[in-house]
Design a protein that fits this description.
single chain, alpha/beta, TIM Barrel, 2 domains, 11 helices
Length: 271
């Protein structure tokens, strides 16, 4: 008798349960099939198809240029590699801020054309109408507060947000509003750890931190940062688990040398 083991998929319900039981949520970005497959098989809980693709995949300076079509391409690629993880896709800049009707249309396209499990949007009160409209259509929404990279030109800098009382109070209020609207979770980026703790404890939904301290219900990093493919980006919150930039450079240089010296291919490597 063959035992068919069913892959237990991560759902919004599962993420909620993890928060209740004090189990931290692991989240990483991915933009293509090959890496998504590796991360999923390794047991990651959530994969974010981030608009950071604009930076790490396309070489833009900010996340602003990436289009909805490009996000759909990346998300579709990721979905083909995933069996278990919960996949969230960023709605790119300009696809949801102007009006809630456009926001819903963007979210629907992502869900229909990629098969992803939910979307993520940046901002609080300003985009609440869009959030409510997307949720009313049955699409899971994750919020994103603190440093919101799509607003970089408003902030003018990527420094820590919400150090001042007024901004911290607005962030707490926005977090409550997003939870009340029905968001299933919240990314908190680059805020003081004490604020990350306060927000995480005040909400029933899970918080995922990136530079928001250890008291968030989970953590997320951009894969290129975690794996050391990027070397320029060195914020305090980043822990590099590999130095792939060096490894890959070494491998390529060895390959070039072997080709030039006619060492590759050798007798065993030809037909």
């Amino acid at each position: 008798m063959s035992v068919h083991t069913e892959v237990k998929k991560v759902t919004t319900h599962a993420l909620q349960r993890m928060k209740q039981h004090g189990e931290k949520i692991s989240m990483i970005t991915a933009y293509d099939y090959s890496f998504a497959r590796i991360f999923d098989a390794a047991g990651i809980d959530v994969i974010l198809v981030g608009d950071s693709a604009s930076n790490v995949m396309a070489g833009h300076e900010t996340t602003l240029p990436i289009t909805l079509d490009q996000m759909i391409y990346h998300a579709s690629s990721v979905m083909r590699g995933v069996n278990r993880a919960f996949v969230v896709v960023d709605l790119p800049f300009g696809s949801y801020q102007s009006n809630s009707k456009e926001a819903l249309a963007s979210a629907i396209r992502i869900m229909k054309e990629t098969g992803a499990h939910g979307i993520k949007v940046e901002g609080g009160e300003e985009i609440l109408e869009s959030v409510k409209r997307i949720l009313a259509a049955g699409i899971p929404v994750m919020g994103h507060l603190g440093l919101t990279p799509q607003s970089i030109y408003k902030f003018g800098t990527y420094t820590v947000r919400a150090r001042e009382e007024a901004e911290a109070e607005k962030l707490k209020k926005d977090a409550r509003l997003l939870e009340e609207a029905g968001a299933f979770g919240l990314v908190l980026e680059k805020i003081p750890a004490a604020l990350g703790k306060a927000v995480s404890q005040s909400l029933n939904i899970p918080t995922i931190g990136i530079g928001a301290g250890k008291y968030c219900d989970g953590q997320v990093l951009v894969m290129h940062d975690l794996l050391g493919i990027n070397t320029e980006f060195q914020p305090r919150f980043l822990r590099r688990y590999l130095r792939l930039h060096e490894e890959i450079t070494g491998a390529i240089q060895q390959y070039i040398k072997d080709v030039k010296s006619n060492d590759f291919p050798n007798e065993q490597e030809q037909y």
